[in-house]
Amino acid sequence: RFNSAKNPEEHISLETYVENMKEGQEQIYFLIGESLESLQASPLIERLVKKGYDVLLMTDAIDSYTMSQLAKYQGKFDFANVGKDGVDMGDDLEALEEEFSPLISYLNKKLLTKISKVQISSRLTNTPAAIISSGHGYT
After folding, report:
1. For strand 3-4 and strand 72-73, is the pairing parallel, antiparallel, or unpaired?
2. How far apart are CA 94 and CA 8, in angstroms?
């Protein structure tokens, strides 16, 4: 059982999470961190919460390992770590990537030794930038 963005004070099961998923939702969103308070305040969940999705908030040390070993729930729902790249928000970013191409190139060159890449994302609503892990990196 896990806390969630919609029910931070209660623990819900994966079964309950799936029962309450939005129509058409195909992924179980989760975020792993050190404390419930930091996860609730994370800019990485703001867009999902604004769109009405729930996000499982995981704080146990074993959660990171466990979730890395799970592929699907009930054989049909993928797990999506919102702390890593590759989470599909269903938005077409091609126009934004083209518009901000000079800025992306500049930041990639300036931060070359500190980060792996700069990219446009639709996962934020109020926060201008966020650092995420690669799909196979540590969160």
Report:
1. unpaired
2. 35
pTM (global) more than 0.90: no
pLDDT band of 135, cuts 50, 70, 90: low
pLDDT tens-digit series, residues 31-84: 999 999 999 999 999 989 999 999 999 999 899 889 989 889 999 999 999 988
pLDDT of residue 19: 95
Q: Which pairs count as long-range contacts for 33-39, CB under 8 Å and 24+ apart, including other chains?
A: 33/57, 33/58, 33/59, 33/83, 33/139, 34/59, 35/59, 36/3, 36/8, 39/3
Burial of 102 (0-12, 13-18, 19+ CB in 10 A): exposed
Single-letter amino acid, residue 30: F
Bridge partner list, 57: 3, 31
Residue whose pair of structure tokens reads 């029910």 in the numeric block: 7
Which pair of tokens denotes residue 27?
């992924």
The string of DSSP letters for 8-22 reads TTS-B-HHHHHHTPP
